[in-house]
Amino acid sequence: MELVEPKILDVTIRDGSYLVDHNISIDFTQKLARGLTESGIRYAEICHGAGIGGGMVGYSSLADDDELMEAALGAAPNLKLSAFIPANDKCIPLIPGLSNFFEMGRIGVNIDSIPSIEKIVKKLIKYKKTISVQLVRTHAKSPEFAATAAKQAQEIGADIVYIVDSFGSMAPQEVKLYIEALKSEINVEIGFHGHNHTGLAVPNAIAAWEAGASWIDASLMGVGRAPGNTVLEALVLLLQEKGSRQDIKLNKLCETTLSTVLPFFQEAPKITLRNLFCAKEKIDFVNESVLDLMANVLMQPISEFISNLRQNIGDKVQLEEKDIRHYLKEQGHNYDKLIGAINSNA
User: Fold this and answer.
1) Which of 75, 112, 145, 196 supports an S-S bond with 30, CB 3.0-4.6 Å?
2) Does the structure show a pLDDT above 80 at 57?
3) Are 168 and 201 in contact (CB under 8 A)?
4) How far apart are the first and last CA of the chain?
5) Pick the residue with more confidence: 313 or 340?
6) Distance CA 300, CA 308 (A)
C-alpha cells in the first residue's frame, strides 16, 4: 500500500484549552496561528475546548469562538480552520454565525450514538462545510462495531471519519485493526485522534497513518486534557524520518513551541497513575482530577476506586457525574458535600 502524505490538524488551542480553564487569549491565538503557518502546518482547530458554544454547558472562557477564529485568520489568512461541534442540537444555531471562519465541522459523538447528529450534519451540508465525524470513545467498542458506526456516519454525510482514542488505551496494533475495519466498510477519508494516557499517542498516530489514515491530530508539546495528546513535534520528526511531510519546517515548529506554547502553558502534560488506570478501565471523565480527590476521601487506592467505578457503570461508554454521585451514595457519602469540603480547603 502506497502511503499518502497525511494532513496534520493542530489541536493546540482546542485540546490545550482544558489546561488553562479555557482561558485562551487572543494574543496567544495570533502568535500560534502565525507560527503554525510559517512552519507549514495548514490546518488548526480553533474554538472552545468543549466545542463551539462551550459556555452554554457551563465552561466560561476568556474569548468567544468567533473572536478566536477571527484572531487566527487575521494573523494567518491561509490557515484552514476546523470547529469542534458537540453532539448537541443546541449548537446548531451557532453554526451560521461562525460559518465564514471555519471550513471543516468536526462533530464529536459517542461511537454508539451516530443517529443523534443528523441535524447537525444537515446544517453543515447547507453551509457547504467539510464534515468530519469523530467516533468518540472508539475503544469502548470492537473494530467491527466501529466500522458499522463509520458506515452510518458516511451514509448521513460524513466526508471524514475519525477513530478517537479518548481513553488513551489503544496500542499501535489495535489502531491498525480499527483502521483496517473502517477501510472495509467506508470509502471516505479516515483520521486518528490520540490521547497519551499510556505514552503511546505518537506511535499510535504513526500506526494509524501506516494503516491508511490520511488525517492525524496533534498538538505542540502534546498539550491537551489529562495527559495530553499526540506530540506534534515528535510526530513530524518521525514522519520526516519515514520520508513524509518534508514540507514542514520542524525547526520553526520547535521555535513556536519555545517562544509561544511553553510560556503560555508553562509545562507539558504529565502521565499520572490516574491516567494509567483510566486507560486500563476505559474510563473517560472530563474532570479527571476529581477522581483522585474522591479516592482520597474514600481512602481507596486510585486503582481500586477507578476499577470500582467501571464495575458500577458496567459497559456504559461514558462516565458521567451522576455515576460518581451514585457510587459515592452507595459508599455512604454525599457528592455535593464532599466537593464543598474540598473547595473550602483548597
Assistant:
1) 75
2) no
3) yes
4) 55
5) 313
6) 10
Averaged pLDDT, 12-32: 97
Confidence at residue 345, expressed as pLDDT on a 0 to 100 scale = 63
Rg of the chain, C-alpha, whole Å? 19
Give dist(CA 7, CA 226) in Å, integer: 25
Phi, psi dihedrals of residue 219, rounded to the nearest 5°: -135, 150
β-pairing verdict for 215-218 and 7-10: parallel
Q: Which of 144, 149, 192, 145 is nearest to 170 (CA)?
A: 192
> Measuring CA to CA, which residue among 26, 131, 31, 140 is closest to residue 76?
31
**At the top level of CATH, which class does the domain 7-265 belong to?**
alpha beta
61 contacts: CB under 8 Å, gap ≥ 6: 17, 22, 23, 24, 48, 54, 55
- Helix 172-183 and helix 143-156, axial crossing angle in degrees, nearest 10: 40
Alpha-carbon span 262 to 252, nearest angstrom: 14
- In angstroms, what CA-CA distances link 188 with 152, 317, 338, 339? 12, 25, 48, 45
**Residue range 212-244, pLDDT digits in tens:** 999 999 999 999 998 999 999 999 999 999 999
Confidence of residue 346 (pLDDT cuts 50, 70, 90): low
For residue 4, give the nearest of 209, 300, 161, 164 by alpha carbon: 209
Residue ranges of E strands in the chain = 7-10, 43-45, 80-86, 104-110, 130-136, 160-165, 189-194, 215-218
Look at residues 220, 167, 171, 211 and name the one whose alpha carbon lies nearest to residue 191: 211
